[in-house]
Structures are given as structure tokens and as C-alpha cells.
Amino acid sequence: MSGKLPQELTLSGLREGRASVAVVTGAGIDSEAGLPTFRGDKGYYEDEEATYLASVDALKAEPSRQWHWYLKRFVSYHDTHPAHSHFALAELEAELGEKFLGIITQNVSGLHRKAGSQKVYEIHGSIQEMRNLKTGEQQTLPETWVESPPGDEELISWRPHVCFFGESYDCFPLPEAMEVCNSCDILLVIGTSGVVHTPVLLSESAQRSGAVVVNINPHPGEVDKISDMNFRGSAAEYFQESVL
């Protein structure tokens, strides 16, 4: 089903209902804040170099070059403000309390946390964090790096805390995200193509556990095939229609 959703699956319906809610977000929601998507028009991965630099191969072969690419993104994301949809989800969490089980995001931007969301599972990591190559310790990147990027000597023992192509989810909260999906009554899947299979996997798991899966995306994608409802629009349009 596409287009208008039943009342219980709109924003007002979620607020008024008794259902527990979980959310999966992809790059589509961040595009509303002005960040590039990955596989869409002018997306990061239209650029072969970007695809390489986001891979575990680059970590092994050219870690310094990879680091500096991620640092440019860290700087560009620093002054990026959340979009209306990010704030709408933070407000929904505050209103639903325990019935809001969490946001599972593929995005590394940190915009959900900037908007005030508390229950966030960053399954691909965060552009704002780094991980020690020997100990696995995680640290937040220093604010000073925005104005004064570090030299290679400061970076040599660290790597960006993001999940690269070709890397497992071992250091990221996928099991916790799966549990959230298995426990919800309604799963909103917002702005992800499903080309990376994880949102499909999470949606299938939620559906098997009895949840209604609502796919919110202006473009057809892999999630369409397993969702119960397809809203053919952006996150902004979903939240706008929900309050009309």
C-alpha cells in the first residue's frame, strides 16, 4: 500500500495509541539537513574514491588518507543542524516515554543526538568518535579538531569509529538494534534504500515478531518488498501529513 496511511500509523496516531514504536533511519532523513545521501543522485558513493575510502581496504592500505577524508566530513557535519524530521522523532520519544523503544540509524552524522534523541543505536558508528586500534577504547573527537585538524602523529593509533565496507558489526550495536525490532509493535523505516541489507534484515525480524512495518521513502527500494505499508514520500512529508 502506498500514499495515505491509516490513522494509527500517522504521527498523531502513534502519539495517541498504545503501541510501542521503533524507528530505522537511513541517509534520506539526513538529506533534509543538507547532507549528501550515499547511493542517490550526487551521493557519496557515486564517487569511486569515496567508496574506496569508506572501505576496510583503505584502512589497511592508506589509513592516513582515509582518516583525513573522514576528518573533512567531521568538520562539515559539525555545523550541520538537524532537520525538522530529526526534531519530530526526538519529540515523539519524549511523548511516548517507555513506549518509544529507540532509533536505529545507519547514519554516522550524530544528528539524531543533536536533535535531542536519547535512545539511539548507531549501527554504523559515529563520525564524532574514534577507536583505538590496539585497545578498542572509544573517544569523542576533540572540538579543537574542527578549527585545527590533527597531524598524522596524533592519528596513528586511532581509526574513525565507523563501520567500513567489508567490516563486520562486531564493534557496533546491531544485536541491541535487533532486540528493539523484535520488541516493537510498529517499526518506521525512514529514508533507506535497503541496498545495504541491514534495514531489510531488521524489518524482517520485526515483522516475524508481529510488528507492522511502515516504509517511508520517496523512492522504491528493497524495503518495499517486505513492508506492510509504503508511504511514498520523504520523512518531512510524513511528519507534515501526520499533523494535518
Strand and helix map with partners:
Elements: H1 11-16, E1 21-25, H2 27-31, H3 48-53, H4 56-61, H5 63-78, H6 84-96, E2 100-105, H7 111-114, E3 120-122, E4 125-132, E5 138-140, H8 144-147, H9 152-155, E6 158-162, H10 174-183, E7 186-190, H11 198-208, E8 212-216, E9 229-231, H12 235-242
Helix pairs in contact: 10-11
Task: Provide a descriptive summary of the structure in words.
The chain is an alpha/beta fold and 244 residues long. It folds into 2 domains: 154 residues, TPP-binding domain (Rossmann fold, 3-Layer(aba) Sandwich); 82 residues, SIR2/SIRT2 'Small Domain' (2-Layer Sandwich), CATH 3.30.1600.10. The protein is 38% helix and 18% strand. It has a 6-stranded parallel sheet, with helices on both faces. Strands 5-4-6 form a 3-stranded antiparallel sheet. Helix 10 runs parallel beside helix 11. The longest helix has 16 residues.
